[in-house]
């Protein structure tokens, strides 16, 4: 490789802070149907949606805590605790299955010593399934934090796992 | 004159190295001291050739692909000298795979700079809206009805009727909602058009707005598509600046503005009423219909909710007239369908063509069979809720009714190819598993049925009372099909039953002992 291009997608998050959380909520609370927008914004800032934020969202939107909790738990994206330092998502939908994704997912699980949906003991890597990245003609595919990788094979999945562990 | 190079920024191209290639081209050009202008485009959809890079020549844009970082120096020299290269594909428009398509919706995708409103306009963009503004609501409705366009999300409901219903409803507010929650595996047309030609979607939605009297639109994009979210947001800003969103769009008396909302990983939100709930900030629980969204949609107001591809078909229809669109197709399936060839396929990508092409032509001829080189055994058409078709049904023409007649659906036009190593028991179990994971939980057949389905198929896989359990799965599928509130529970039986019907041999243990006894 002549041109090495390795954009750093490693995310960095602020520690939870009530004042900052309140600011984020206030920034979006005026929109119609703002619950998901706010939950996304909180997760983007803190890496997860802290439990303490749920009643704050409820109050800002004049909803019950149960309603906000219900929304928060309904959607796969929202986390109740921080993920590992890197998040590796493997597409497990049919197009990637057809292209050999099952074996590659098993390989990643073995290398990391965790099953899909869990985080390594050292909190370095969270390995998750994702149901379709829309890269179905260059399958199998994965996403390491924000970076997409297609045409996965054993070599590429090993490199991705190694990068995530670094 | 500067050398003009075009490199896709489409997520599928980026996933196989397009960003690295773009950097490498800049470096090589700098080394040669040649002034180069690099435009990042969408993808032409020849995914097996991605990253596909093009250079402007007197004869048209010449393509190279698939280009890896190591190839950049030699490709650049070939471009500069117009010399031969192993990856040189000739003039892009003349590549047979592209040339044999009928690109009405995807005409500009991969050609223009998706960040540039000027480029969009220079390639015929906003002609449809301009004509729509001169026609007025009734005449637009007549065109959208006459063209025969049916909802491209999969349900195939006539778009003209939907729009007319909303136009006739009286309310203080109406909404236009674009369903960009493209969750079906094997589909990526929405993503490609949002990333490669986002103004087209905006134009289609704005046209719907002026037709039905809605001034606000939302495009609900799944969170798995960050590149599409970015592209749509950038295009919305540019369209506003250019006077195509906001007050008095296109110099008319109509106002229409829109915003992007991002989903949160729930597949069921691709179902329109679930999507509306989600947009309102709630759990994506499916609503019982009626009332239809056209009467009682977003925030209880009359709402046009259409798929990305439906809105994206509108500008052509209005610019060129209903007949120009309706002249393509077969039976009640008029116009073109952007078909997506995916999975284990040699030449996968986006193939837009008139309805009527057969499944066999798509898979064998256009797709070139599998990339593993093994025989094609099964293809799933229409996403996780679509049926598995065996080779014996490859004569089925791509048409809403023809697929329905064979207990399948075309859905959003995705085709996932499997070779002969596929275990159809696993695929049937996965269909139930996926339904169990993604069920919104509102109705019992879907919520409970999917879990019971996984367990029962598991028993079949383990060889427990296979005959009885097969009958049980079939019975369960009927309950789900007829008893579920929406297509998630209602259509999950399609992949399961088709696997049972067409690939029965995978479910019944081979009768080896019997044969030995005879």
From TrEMBL, chain A:
Keywords, ordered alphabetically: 2Fe-2S, Iron, Iron-sulfur, Metal-binding
Family the entry assigns: Belongs to the complex I 24 kDa subunit family.
Cofactor binding: number and manner: Binds 1 [2Fe-2S] cluster.
Pfam families: 2Fe-2S_thioredx
Positions with a binding annotation for [2Fe-2S] cluster: 91, 96, 132, 136
Protein name: Formate dehydrogenase subunit gamma
Naturally occurring in which organism (per UniProt): Bradyrhizobium cytisi
Needed cofactors: [2Fe-2S] cluster
Catalysed reaction equations from the record: a quinone + NADH + 5 H(+)(in) = a quinol + NAD(+) + 4 H(+)(out)
GO molecular function: 2 iron, 2 sulfur cluster binding; metal ion binding; oxidoreductase activity
Secreted recorded as keyword: no
NCBIfam families named in the record: PRK05988.1
Automatic annotation (TrEMBL), chain B:
Keyword DNA damage included in the entry's annotation: no
InterPro entries reported for this sequence: NADH-UbQ_OxRdtase_51kDa_CS, Nuo51_FMN-bd, Nuo51_FMN-bd_sf, Nuop51_4Fe4S-bd, Nuop51_4Fe4S-bd_sf, Thioredoxin-like_sf
Cofactor (UniProt): [4Fe-4S] cluster; FMN
The species this protein was found in: Bradyrhizobium cytisi
Protein name from the UniProt record: NADH-quinone oxidoreductase subunit NuoF
Sequence ranges assigned to domain NADH-ubiquinone oxidoreductase 51kDa subunit iron-sulphur binding in this UniProt record: 425-470
GO molecular function list: 4 iron, 4 sulfur cluster binding; FMN binding; metal ion binding; NADH dehydrogenase (ubiquinone) activity
Keywords noted in UniProt: 4Fe-4S, Iron, Iron-sulfur, Metal-binding
Pfam family, one: NADH_4Fe-4S
Family that this chain belongs to: Belongs to the complex I 51 kDa subunit family.
Role, per record: NDH-1 shuttles electrons from NADH, via FMN and iron-sulfur (Fe-S) centers, to quinones in the respiratory chain. The immediate electron acceptor for the enzyme in this species is believed to be ubiquinone. Couples the redox reaction to proton translocation (for every two electrons transferred, four hydrogen ions are translocated across the cytoplasmic membrane), and thus conserves the redox energy in a proton gradient.
